[in-house]
Design goal:
Elements: H1 3-19, E1 22-23, E2 28-29, E3 45-46, E4 54-55, H2 60-63, H3 74-82, H4 99-117, H5 122-127, E5 132-134, H6 140-145, H7 155-164, E6 171-176, H8 181-201, E7 210-213, H9 219-227, E8 231-237, E9 248-254, E10 266-272, H10 279-296, H11 300-307
Parallel strand pairs: 5-7, 6-7, 6-8
Antiparallel strand pairs: 1-2, 3-4, 8-9, 9-10
Helix pairs in contact: 8-10
The protein binds cobalamin.
Cobalamin binds next to strand 10.
């Protein structure tokens, strides 16, 4: 389901509810009101082509929405609600979900699915001075059904990388949509400058960064071997969930090579996003790990064992 379809469904459902006198902004029907302070105040509006504006069900206000009409302890309930992305304190309507809960669930589900299928635009790539290559998974369908293809560079990609990238860097940074293009679009601008500055301050040479479409983690082995990089940092979109669909991971490996490197040779810094590990903080951790990898000439579990 794409964003337009979701929006159309939301518009239709909200209109129907309003026709029946349901106050959706308050999250309850008009004859079963609850305290105003629990309402999602100032909910942001969606563009609706001249129609009355609708609240954004995926927004912060609805994330913090408390759907229990008359709680004994509203303060504690709101604190609980704000402390977790889990769907707690959403109340019920008889044995059923509240309408807001159901619509929010659909919106989150759609966002998670969309980010897997969405392409990072050429304009976005050019604006950041990157270039794009593809794995042997030529499209999103192949990427999802044939993970093995997402682990191999296409012949054209190998040629382009060889032609356009500086060889033998200390650190090669590569970006890939993986399973979430929003993870890249949402975090790149924060993490990349911090990474670049961190590696430069550490006195390490940086390769030419680029983007791999339809990538899987293991594609980093072929790229590092192709360029003779000592450490490779792959920034890749994580599998999305209902609570988070723009979470980024950095997978690092020391001189990896296809067929030789196994998962335990890699180190991962995961859950990089505004509400998780902040990108700038993650960048500092990544630079530290890369320095350790170069000093110890090892990665993954071997690096951890050396640190003990
Ligand atoms: C899917 C997943 C798995 C799947 C991977 C199967 C597959 N082929 O996709 C399975 C169930 C096998 C798995 C196992 C493990 N996982 Co896992 N996994 C995830 C998850 C939910 C999504 C990863 C993702 O989207 N990757 C991006 C896509 C594009 O990558 P991919 O190429 O399709 O798949 C590769 C990666 O997923 C990678 N991978 C998956 N988990 C791990 C863990 C480590 C330490 C490493 C180096 C690589 C790795 O292996 C896949 C094959 O190359 C993340 C959660 C998250 N927030 O990222 C946890 C996560 C990455 N896993 C984690 C852990 C701890 C593990 C295990 C060590 C658990 C265990 N004790 O056995 C094992 C190690 C597996 C390994 N490859 O060595 C932790 C890592 C924590 C950390 N910072 O070190 C995470 C962050 C979950 C968590 N919050 O605790 N995992």
């Amino acid at each position: 389901m794409n964003e337009n379809t979701v929006e159309q469904i939301v518009v239709a459902v909200v209109r129907e509810l309003q026709r029946h006198g349901v106050d959706l902004r308050a999250g309850v029907s008009a004859d079963r009101t609850r305290p105003r302070q629990e309402d999602p105040a100032e909910a942001p509006a969606l563009a609706t082509n001249g129609e009355p504006p609708l609240p954004d069900l995926a927004g912060e206000e609805y994330r913090l929405w408390v759907g229990i009409g008359e709680p004994d302890d509203g303060v504690t309930l709101r604190e609980l609600r704000a402390s977790t992305p889990a769907r707690v304190a959403s109340g019920r309507s008889g044995p059923r979900l509240r309408t807001v809960s159901l619509l929010r669930f659909s919106a989150d589900c759609s966002r998670a699915r969309d980010t897997v299928h969405k392409e990072i635009s050429d304009a976005w790539i050019q604006e950041r001075g990157l270039f794009a290559v593809s794995t042997c998974a030529a499209d999103k369908r192949a990427h999802l059904t044939r993970p093995d293809r997402g682990r191999e560079l296409s012949a054209a990609a190998s040629q382009t990388i060889r032609a356009r990238c500086a060889p033998d860097p200390d650190v090669q940074i590569v970006v890939s949509d993986g399973l979430s293009s929003d993870a890249i679009a949402g975090n790149y601008d924060d993490i990349m400058p911090a990474l670049t500055a961190g590696f430069r301050a550490a006195g390490l040479t940086l390769g030419t960064p680029f983007l791999v479409r339809n990538g899987r983690v293991k594609v980093q082995d072929e790229i590092a071997a192709l360029l003779g990089a000592r450490v490779i940092v792959l920034l890749i979109g994580e599998r999305p969930g209902l609570a988070q669909s723009d979470s980024l991971s950095a997978y690092l490996a020391y001189r990896p090579a296809p067929g030789r490197t196994v998962e335990s040779d890699r180190t991962v810094v995961s859950n990089i996003h505004g509400a998780g590990t902040p990108p700038v903080e993650a960048a500092a951790v990544i630079v530290g790990i890369a320095q350790d990898m170069i000093a110890q000439q090892a990665g993954g579990i071997h690096l951890r064992q050396m640190a003990k």
